[in-house]
Recover the amino acids of this structure.
């Protein structure tokens, strides 16, 4: 016997904060244009690297917005969960873009170490400060929403990296201005590349967990098992599955063995209500499925999972 507590998947976490992403996209694109022009005029590789990173952020936000729209399409017989996993694929694309950008920046910086070009620090410093201010604004826009969605978290981490990159460019400009040490620009470029990689790896690891249907972070399967077993009439629970469709959409299913006398119409309904209430208090999900099995049937079950 299966019981689906809720058949509505609802809007995804990214979709709920779409306006925030649009605002960040507008701010980011505006600064990218200014930084690219500033990099060309000043000859600064670190400023160009920061602009390239921000451009990848803009691409990532665009992908996230597109994915949020796709994920909102209704489910069908062929895709029973709809297109909600599109958001996870977008987060995967963001992580890969970050890795490629960092490698390109690092390679160009190494090439420049032998003969660093002269940099116009005035333009470089102005564009870097403008980028830092814009990144601070974007961080404030995304600060609360990033806890709910992988895509928004990816955008938040990218903007945070941009802020650090802008600070690195500002420091490099100040060093060149005060000491004439032109290689400071190239060193800042390497630092920007090195800052990108850990964030990309963190996002990639979270995406892989979702695609491999790992249990959501903070969820203890054994604790959930113990709470289900504490419900009156339950004798055993097996084939527990806990996974995430996309950010903010966890799913739970389990086979629950109950006393034979419980499985009448009224008893089964009351038991399911208790199980759903119990699960809801310990695992935040609107989509849970229980298969109720009489104890006398348990010997026919092959337990292949937890």
């Amino acid at each position: 016997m299966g019981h689906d507590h809720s058949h509505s998947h609802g809007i995804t976490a990214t979709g709920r904060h779409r306006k925030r992403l649009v605002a960040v996209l507008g701010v980011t694109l505006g600064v990218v244009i200014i930084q690219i022009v500033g990099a060309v005029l000043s000859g600064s590789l670190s400023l160009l690297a920061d602009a390239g990173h921000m451009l990848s952020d803009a691409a990532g936000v665009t992908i996230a917005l597109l994915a949020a729209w796709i994920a909102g399409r209704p489910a069908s017989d062929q895709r029973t969960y709809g297109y909600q996993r599109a958001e996870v694929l977008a987060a995967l694309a963001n992580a890969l873009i970050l890795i490629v950008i960092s490698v390109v920046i690092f390679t160009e910086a190494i090439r420049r170490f032998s003969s660093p070009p002269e940099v116009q620090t005035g333009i470089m410093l102005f564009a870097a400060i403008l980028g830092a201010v814009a990144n601070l604004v974007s961080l404030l826009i995304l600060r609360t929403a990033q806890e709910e969605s992988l895509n928004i978290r990816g955008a938040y981490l990218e903007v945070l990296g941009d802020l650090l990159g802008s600070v690195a460019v500002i420091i490099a400009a100040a060093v060149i201005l005060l000491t004439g040490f032109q290689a400071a620009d190239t060193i800042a470029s390497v630092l920007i590349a090195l800052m990108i990689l850990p964030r990309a790896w963190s996002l990639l690891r979270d995406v892989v967990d979702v695609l491999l249907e790992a249990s959501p972070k903070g969820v203890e399967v054994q604790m959930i098992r113990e709470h289900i077993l504490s419900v009156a009439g339950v004798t055993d629970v097996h084939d527990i599955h806990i996974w995430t469709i996309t950010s903010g959409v966890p799913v739970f299913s389990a086979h629950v063995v109950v006393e034979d006398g419980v499985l009448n119409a009224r008893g089964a309904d009351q038991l399911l209500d208790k199980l759903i209430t119990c699960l809801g208090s310990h695992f935040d999900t609107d989509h849970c499925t229980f298969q109720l099995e009489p104890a006398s049937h348990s010997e026919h079950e092959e337990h292949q999972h937890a």
Remarks:
- Residues 221-300 form a domain with the Alpha-Beta Plaits fold (CATH 3.30.70.1350).
- Confidence is low (pLDDT under 50) at residues 1-10.
- The chain has two domains: 9-211, 221-300.
- The first strand starts at residue 2 and ends at 4.
